[in-house]
Write a structure and sequence with these properties.
Layout (H helix, E strand, L loop, with lengths): L2 H12 L4 H6 L4 E2 L10 E2 L20 H6 L3 H24 L35 H16 L10 E5 L13 E2 L3 H8 L1 H8 L4 E4 L3 E2 L2 E2 L4 H11 L5 E3 L4 H6 L8 H10 L13 H6 L5 H17 L20 H14 L1 E5 L13 E5 L7 H4 L12 H8 L4 E5 L19 H9 L3 E7 L16 E2 L2 E2 L6 H13 L3 E6 L8 H6 L2 E4 L7 H9 L32 H4 L17 E11 L3 E10 L5 E11 L10 E10 L4 E9 L5 E2 L5 E2 L5 E6 L5 H7 L4 E4 L2
Parallel strand pairs: 3-5, 4-6, 5-8, 10-11, 10-12, 12-15, 15-16
Antiparallel strand pairs: 1-2, 6-7, 9-16, 13-14, 17-18, 18-21, 19-20, 19-24, 22-23, 24-25
Helix pairs in contact: 1-12, 4-5, 4-13, 5-7, 13-19, 15-19, 16-17
Length: 700
Amino acid sequence: MTKTEAREKAKKIVSQMTAEEKISQLLYNSPAIERLGIKAYNWWNEGAHGVARAGTATVFPHTIAMAATFDPELINKIGDVISTEGRIKYNKHVEYNDFDIFKGITYWAPNINIFRDPRWGRGQETFGEDPFLTSVLGTSFVKGIQGDGEFLKGAACSKHYAVHSGPEKTRHSFDAKTNEHDLFETYLPAFEKTVKAGVAGVMGAYNRTNGEPCCAHSYLVSDILRKRWGFDGYFVSDCGALKNIYTFHQFTETKAEAAAVSLKNTCDLNCGETYDALIDAYEEDLVTEDDITAAAERLYTIRCLLGEFEEVRPYSDIPYSKLDCKEHRELNLTAAEQCLVLLKNEDNYLPLDKNTDKRIAIVGPNALSVTALEGNYNAYASQYFPVADGIRNVFTNADISVEKGSNYCFEQLNHWSGFNNMLSDGIAAASEADITVLALGLDCSIEGEDTGFDDDYTASGDKKSLFLPATQQKLAEGVCDVCDNVIVVLMCGSSIDVGEKLRNHAKAIIHAWYPGSLGGLAVARMLAGEFSPSGKLPVTIYNGNHHIPDFNDYSMKGRTYRYIDGDALYPFGFGLSFTDFKYSDFNVVDKNDETVTVSVKVKNTGKVKAKEISQIYASFKDSRTYTPHYQLCAVKTTELAPEEEATVTFNIDAFWLKAVLEDGSRVTPDGEILLYAGGHQPDNVSNALTGNVCEKIKIQ
């Protein structure tokens, strides 16, 4: 079905509705219209890294972990599996007349906000801090969800539009102020790219941007999204966001006025109940029936594209046995393996001997944690492999001991129920071990979405510190005092500095993110050398004492690798391997106004087969505006055997080689443009950590 055919079918369906019936369909929990044979439909479903909150499904690594793969093809496959499992569930929900929340095939994912501040608790839901990487991976995910068939396999939704990344505590009332330069250079590109790739939906943010509520924004929604980019899909409010308009934002005085200004600015669907007041707004002539009809038609166009009203629903023949099947679990394990980032490997300490009979202690609050595998917005897996279980499964001859050692954040004396002070037990296990794996980090109860809980370490899900919580730091330092061979496995969704003592003492440090249900097995397989790590950092890891601008300041100056002041601890794009790669013969193959094609030779000069994520960065200056230190503009993954060499070709979208002026326009820089090719960013810290310098060419 073409979009034109779907639109005509939608118009025919909507034309039979009364004004009141149309209004009822603009709520996320759209009721049935029995006289027209229309079933109820609940638009709210989540699918960031698996079909969420509705029974068993594959739990993939969370979005920030997916980003660490730097692999658009892998992300596309994950999106395809999510929509396959979503269709399987939806088919049965329809068969059994179950139209409840989280039962539809409209997924409010991906989150393509820019992870501009490492304190933000929801950064785990994003593809990281870079607009190019977010655009490429977000687009691949959208295409995977929606498929390439006659009908949409599922409907993806890019969120949260726009200029949204904390603080969580004030998100319902906050005004994110930004200039046109940062808006168009950093905050909008991923939305533009996913819109032009055909994303079905866009979700508005809770906050205001430059004074206007994001879900009723005349400039962002009516002008840029609808007119400039030509978006003709559906726009949905974040859940409860329209209520903010007349309460916290006080942008309007009444609920009806809030509903009216949102509808007038083409917010089609209300996740919440503010659109109940559209009846009043209609009767008070604040909106017209044409306004209501236009929104209903856009929504029904999506429902038609999903095949809801077909005599034989598309994708209805996918067997239930494909849910959480062997092939999906294999893809999940591959994703978990590729998301692991090796930050340190002193004197090639890793990999370990898989057949060792040494004593291995797994110590830390994430040793047996399932929630640290899941992240948030998660599905429920049929099987989990926490770190300790993964190591038991792979190192079958080792003498394994496990201790929690500490809570995530709170250090207390034991009371009658126990389990508060476990420090001595954790250190004791390490003291008798040949190797200690410290499973540290956070989970979504510490960093997450608007938890409403404040303490010394967090504020409503945002971190107050870039270090590990003090109780884990105390455990780690105690372990360092009693065990020489320490491996750190850090599981969290953001930048955390484990502290100087542990950084210096540890033989190896692995950032595992929230790696999905099989994450612990992936960690163990990497420790045993069953594959070489290939993950790269999608965020900057800062020294815990690094000065970061005020959380409320949305200027990009001093933020992310593109505008950082000073040096990173571990830079964006960095990640070690068990082998070495050499780059040579970096050349321009072709160049026109739209695309620059370059090639470079990559050789595996080590002793193991491995994947290499080759990265192209641009550096340019413009006297009219400020520009990034570097801008990632192309990535490609290549697997090479020892001594194997390949020529890798990249097609660079010229969009990423432009300078953004103060009015937001993109222009060819008036200075030279340099391109860099390598396995990391061309900064001094990455060069020092890897011992390699990127290849460089001038294209202007």
